Amino acid sequence: MGKRLARGPDGAPAPRKRQKVVHEAPTSEDVHTSRQLQQLLAFTQDPARARHGLQSFKLFLDELLGSNAADAERHRILRDYLQATRPAAAAAANDDDDNDNDATNTVFLPDVMQTWSYGAQTNNDNLMSAVPVVLALLLKLLGRSLDTVAVGLGICRTLLQKRQQDLIARNLSADKGKSFIIAPTLRMLREVVGFDGGAVARPLFRARMSTLKSLARNMGIVHMGDDAEDPKRPSTRTHAVLFFLSCLRFLHPEAKKELLSQRDIVAALTRDVKQDPPYLVRELLDGLRTHVLLDDKLPREAKTGLLTASTLTRLAALYQYRLDAAEEGNDDDGTRPVADMAHEFLMAACTNPSCGVLRQDSGFYPREVDPNALIPPAELDDLGLEAVVWMNKYKQEVPVRNYTLANFLPNLRPWSSVNQSELITAVFRVAPELVAHYFLANKSFTFEPKLTATWIGYAAFVFKTAALPLPECFGHHGGYPQLPPPTSIVIDNILPPPVNQKALSRSLASPSNLIAFFATRIMVVAIEKLDAAVKMHLDPSHANQTVWAEAARRLVDAFCQRSPGIQDMINAYRAIPEGDVLHREAASRLLRLCYEVLPQVALMAKFDVSPFLETSLARLSRAEAQDPRDFVMGLHELKNLLAMAGYSPGMRWFSGAAGGSDPQSLSPFTRLLKVCVEAPEGVELSTMREVLGFVAAEQQLVVDTTAAAAAAAAAAAAAAADNNNNNNNNNKPHKKKMHRGLFALLEALQVLRRSHPDSAAQIWPFLDNCLTRCANAPVKYVERMHELAREALEARGGDRSDAVASPLALAMLEQLPFAAARDKEQPVLKALGRFLPLFLGLSATAGESRWLLELVFSKMLAHLADSKGRLAKAGVPGGLKFEFHPLPLEIAAEGQKSSPAIASPEQKEARPAGDSAPLLDASALEQALDVPDALAVDHSALVKWASKTVDELIDEGYLVSLMSLLASEHASIRKESLVNVLKAAARIQQSEHDEREQVWLLLSELAETAREVNIDAGPLPSHLVAFACHALQVLRDPLSPLYAKVNTFLTRGPMWSPTRLPLVDEVLGEDPGTAPDAYYAQLAWLLGYLLDGLRTPRDLELLHRKRAAKGPVLERVLAVGGGNPFLRQTLRAQVLRLVYRATKVEGGSTTLTTRFGIANWLEERRAACEAKGDTDEAAVCEGLKRRVWETCERERVQGWSRGGLALEA
């Protein structure tokens, strides 16, 4: 049987090959009238004629949209045509988008719609393509004028009718090769959805089965060819993406949520984004950022569905986008690089919790961990951290909550792009849980030192990661939990796993300075971060202090195992070239941190810092010009070396002085002094001055005049052994900053250098010799000072027991004859003639004994070049002021006049005969009037109260201790105390205690007041805490005379005013004669809570604040204490204790003197007590009056009293 021949429908043989489709260009003609336009667009079954009419209409619309947009005649033709073809039902049609009957019965442009339908029936691709093109241009044109918007809306509704929906769906589902059909249809739909501000966007989305047909597939039809895509002829993907973005712009949130839930569309949106033209990528990023990320009305789950790990990875590929390279040289259009826009988008998406990607985590606590799990205390005491089963579990893998980011970050390349490194570190900052997970899951890159661009980029990324701050409370929300975080996670955040001991040791020993510098910087930030972590572990607010302390020790041990040895760091510092100032500063800072944070590691190596310190001082002391920036970095290195020298007991501060004029022969101490004097203006030198003061005090180069004055006062009072430990003395010596003698020495050298630079350069060898000798034998010069004092005592008489002079001045007096004996030392003597009077005068201003300094100077004159007697005539200058190093006010005041704290013999003789009250010293006065702080912080109350019964809580003071913590200076303590107060209130309310309701109301109002005051910003005012504690004692006793007042006060309102003292008016306003016992009991209670509530200047302000018709509270209390002859002695003592407590507050003595006339009040009380024969209370009043004078601002008080109080003192 032979093969059959293929037959056509008419019986003729059919061709064996597919016939070639030839696309003939359509013809066109110019449009001159609306009648002509109607004829051209009239329906016909002739495809060529239909194409001819559509092409003519297209060209007509192109001209209106293009250069001939202002052609009024053509616009008139179009309006006439639209009016002629407008259906009659449209005139009465409602413009509402949801009017389905109108949309069904009214058809705009019926001929064009019929032509489109005919093309679909006959499979005429040209007609199916031409109609959407014409409609898209027409809608674009109609949207430009308000007069034609109604017609445009009618066309849009016509397109959403069932018949046209089927045509749209057929066009959108055409073969992939027929982009000339798909692209115009998508363009038409974009015009429809955005027409008149999205007026028909809602019904268009309801018809999504047709309008969104094959949208995901069409997004994959990209531009083919080697040439770039022409913006005038966009690809099908471009039209599809722009249509999708238009939908996001104009749809309501619920519709957008459903649109973004289409996984195939969302996946196709970014699948080929790297090949898209630049303008499309910018539109995509801007549209998604504006209408998705920043849309607060869009639910979070909708954003999460869009921003998956794969979507973020595809967008991250835009970091290497290069198709916009041709636009980089053209900045006139204001376009931004695509890579920068992608970086901005990813930063917002990955770091903003409202964008749907970032989830709330628990910081260093993994997802499966409950850090507040209850573990028996006995088990914790026996096993420590081993009792926590998950403590050592997360060394290889860390479960996280941000799984999307955890899958996305490994796809980035931080070593090749600064922006990608910045993105990862920004994510680490807001999601700390990802740090350990990222490095544990990405072990492909090692930190082995190689001087390549990749290694440098990775090292920079590791440095940024290590420099990230630790999250508050290790990321746990609501304060510190019961248990510390796993040590492995904390150490991975401090030093990432790739940075191990071997890699760091090799990096520090690398011959490349750049590699060693990177390793040094990483170690610096890591140790600083370790220090912060250890301090967080040792925070006093932790409930389980022992467990947290053990975790801190484990953390330090883990860091030591991962970091290089101290000897490697020292060797690396020694190998740094002298000119590499940045590296030297970083390495010295690293060694300093080791001494401060890891002393157990630093002391393992024998490191003599003296040679390095001498080299640094010599470098800074060179006379040749230096770059100011290098000088500043050299100062920073010097500060680090000085700090290490302070930790090194073997530092030789006064070695190497040979007495020559060469600056290299000066001792390190003198070189450091020279650097401070010759440093440029504006350079911070506080650290070096502190070191100079510390060394000078240790070597007894200078004396502390404040300590000397205190010693004299102790000898006069015979009981001042504890005077230096009195925390309430406002005139404290400034030992931590610098001693007064060094203030004078530095000031004198600065002044001499400014006025006579040559003389300043001459005195350094002489000064170094004196400093060295004084440091080697300080006792010798102290004894010489006492000898001179005895000599003056024999010559002039009087009391010279308070003689104070610097041993350095005595050393200068001893060495001056030897300098004068040398013939070559005449320039030095001339310089000393300028320097010594200046130094001695400034020493007198600083508080040293002027008469003793004048005696020393008189002996110096025999060896100075003073042929005309000018120096002898001038003597030690007086009234000198400090310009370069201003003294504190109290030091300057003590230098200008003797302190009234020590009464001179003349003052004692001038005392009235009747003034027989014994003088109490400071310690006796403190013993008589000082009472312990009732609000002292007891952190154990946070734990102890939970195991006590309600009766024990109220009667044994546990509840008082818990409330007192609301006045703690630590915010975390206050927060935890507030939570426990509320728990205790709820527990008491549910108990069977007799006064449970009143106690619950007291605690609840206290908690509400704490919330209103915002204890996060500062402690709760002391008077409110004191009132609550004392009110609790009243509520325990229903027979108390204050029981009714306290309950009435509690029922007034839900919170207490922080600017009012509770129950003051109610107690002080009562008549003592009606019920004396009840009145004095209430007064004793009031004075007790006022005393406990006076702790800060803010508390004192409440006591002296004026109130209408009643006066300040303290004034009323003093009136009661001084004007009531029947007041009991215990209450009078309580008033004096209140005054004494006020003197301990900063500025309290000045306020008492200037606002309340406390000096006169105390004088009257003393006289009244002496009249009654009560010498003990009189002595207390006299001692309290003297304390007020000692602790007040004397200059202000003297000015206020015009010198009256100063004479009385």
UniProtKB/TrEMBL annotation:
<dbReference type="Pfam" id="PF16201">
    <property type="entry name" value="NopRA1"/>
</dbReference>
<feature type="domain" description="URB1 N-terminal">
    <location>
        <begin position="109"/>
        <end position="458"/>
    </location>
</feature>
<dbReference type="InterPro" id="IPR039844">
    <property type="entry name" value="URB1"/>
</dbReference>
<dbReference type="InterPro" id="IPR059018">
    <property type="entry name" value="HEAT_URB1"/>
</dbReference>
<dbReference type="InterPro" id="IPR021714">
    <property type="entry name" value="URB1_N"/>
</dbReference>
<feature type="domain" description="URB1 central HEAT repeat">
    <location>
        <begin position="648"/>
        <end position="713"/>
    </location>
</feature>
<feature type="domain" description="URB1 central HEAT repeat">
    <location>
        <begin position="744"/>
        <end position="870"/>
    </location>
</feature>
<feature type="region of interest" description="Disordered">
    <location>
        <begin position="1"/>
        <end position="33"/>
    </location>
</feature>
<feature type="region of interest" description="Disordered">
    <location>
        <begin position="895"/>
        <end position="915"/>
    </location>
</feature>
<protein>
    <recommendedName>
        <fullName>Nucleolar pre-ribosomal-associated protein 1 N-terminal domain-containing protein</fullName>
    </recommendedName>
</protein>
<dbReference type="InterPro" id="IPR032436">
    <property type="entry name" value="URB1_C"/>
</dbReference>
<feature type="domain" description="URB1 C-terminal">
    <location>
        <begin position="962"/>
        <end position="1161"/>
    </location>
</feature>
<dbReference type="Pfam" id="PF11707">
    <property type="entry name" value="Npa1"/>
</dbReference>
<dbReference type="Pfam" id="PF26140">
    <property type="entry name" value="HEAT_URB1"/>
</dbReference>
